């Protein structure tokens, strides 16, 4: 059986991206970053198979594509406060005109142009 080990984001500046995502998620570097790779884990994760999604950052030299084919959804109990906190960390708002009237998400991008959504959480649907 397979499981997702890490989601990998391509970046140009691994130090800047690492600083952003560690601050945004409260994650820690699994080890010392190399010049082109780092894995970030939730605090207290001590084994690769332990619960909690990891995020890897990779310098590839390839340009960012728009729109990206994959993005992260970050869940927030206080969406407005989290959006402001992320903007203060260096995230940028994405000028996106396709929001439906009942959208519960806002599209942002990190310091490297990787897009992510901040989703307002609510009751977990049952069944």
Automatic annotation (TrEMBL):
PROSITE patterns: VOC (PS51819). It comes from the Bacteria. SUPFAM superfamilies: Glyoxalase/Bleomycin resistance protein/Dihydroxybiphenyl dioxygenase. InterPro entries: Glyas_Bleomycin-R_OHBP_Dase, Glyoxalase_6, VOC_core. Residues 3-121 form the VOC domain. This is VOC family protein. The lineage of its organism: Bacteria, Bacillati, Actinomycetota, Actinomycetes, Micrococcales.
């Amino acid at each position: 059986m397979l499981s997702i080990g890490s989601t990998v984001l391509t970046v140009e500046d691994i130090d800047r991206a690492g600083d952003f995502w560690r601050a945004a998620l409260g994650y820690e570097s699994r080890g010392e970053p190399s010049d082109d790779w780092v894995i970030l884990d939730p605090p207290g994760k001590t084994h690769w198979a332990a619960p909690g999604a990891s995020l890897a950052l990779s310098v590839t030299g390839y340009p960012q594509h728009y729109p990206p084919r994959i993005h992260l959804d970050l869940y927030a109990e206080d969406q407005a406060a989290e959006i402001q906190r992320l903007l203060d960390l260096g995230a940028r708002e994405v000028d996106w005109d396709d929001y439906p009237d009942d959208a519960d998400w806002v599209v942002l991008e990190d310091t490297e142009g990787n897009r992510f959504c901040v989703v307002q959480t609510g009751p977990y649907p049952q069944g």
